Amino acid sequence: MNLKIRFKLWWKRIQLYWRFTFAHHPLCDRFKDQVFEINGVYFCQGCTFVFSGVVIGSILFSFLQLPLSFWWWFMSSGLLALPTFIVHFSSLPRMVTRIARFLFGLSFGWTIGGLVKFANWINWLILIGFSVFIYVLFRILYRGSKKQTDACKGCPELDEPSVCPGYQLQMEAERKYSEYATKLLQPQIEAYIQSKTTPMILSQKEQKNLEQTSHSEN
Predict the structure, then answer these.
(1) Considering the entire predicted model, what is its pTM?
(2) Which of 2, 36, 136, 187 is 20 to 30 A off residue 166, Cα-Cα?
(3) Tally of CA atoms within 13 A in the half-sphere of 173 that contains its CB
């Protein structure tokens, strides 16, 4: 597969999937309070609050002059991330969870601000290492959580063989992508098959010629 075809397939996938790439949840009524929809584009609410915190925190804390030492800055970053781990093991209103996610993103923005404020490679290693540790720990806890499946329990269509309504848009995009990829790759597939069958055909012809030559000599 050449580079041009790879690019076409990559670009087609973006065109078909971009509207729900960042949804991270089924697009059904059971998950409607976990997804933002803006003009037909879907965003995971939790991730939206996290990245909003990162962006706002990065801009704010990079330019805001706060009279804090490095270690106060370091501890503040941890305190901003702490609410996310508390609400992870608690049954609190969704708004509280969203605020905690925003503070979690804000802690990373605080770290980026620290990289600007404390231009020292040792401080950089401490801040970056701590941020990586917090993120990895969060991902481990999040993936191990069973909260993602709770909203599907009791759904009358959970055991149905048909496609879940929350993934109908994704399946339609997948069907269109498969059709496009098949049409685009068809000439290459046919050429490949032809290259494999041609030697067999030639060998059969050669064998027939040899048989005719042998008969004529006899």
Answers:
(1) 0.68
(2) 136
(3) 15
